[in-house]
Amino acid sequence: MARTESTMLPLGTIAPTFYLKDTNSNDFYSFGDLKGSKGTLVIFICNHCPFVLHVISEIVMIANDYRVQGIGVVAISSNDIIKYPEDSPELMTEFAMEHKIDFPYLYDDSQETAKSYQAACTPDFYLFDNQDQLFYRGQLDDSRPGNGIPLSGSDLRGAIDALLYNRSLKEPQRPSVGCGIKWK
User: Fold this and answer.
1) Which residues pair with 133 in a beta bridge?
2) For 134-147, what is each residue's pLDDT tens digit?
């Protein structure tokens, strides 16, 4: 299990646009279609990564907790499905059903979206404000597979709360750690 850190895209970066197919609905969506009234959380995940499997329940809870407060949530998988067929769109649909993901789970076949976000790992989290400016990028919390620290989502929840309630963020923002994106 290789450990890759997120690249920490500069804060204030405007959300890169995309137009990708949702494996849950088979509809195509852009960033503008999915953005929330208060902000938007973009998460790069995949089906097979042990880091994602470790945190997926907390990701779903965060989505459920904050979508009702005006945060749009979208997950994107950009992995090469030729080398990693377990990340295919058909299996993304199954993964979403199994883990009760009821927000869009988009497939980035060209990997251009991952490149435009400078995504490096799964999971990789990007929180944009209501002006589409990057407000937070970094880890969910300190929990990793096998380290014994319970999942809390504390870093990401703290960032979303700061965005919603106009508070300053805890510094420094710590990079997410996970499996590297499987590039073509």
Assistant:
1) 14
2) 999 999 999 999 99
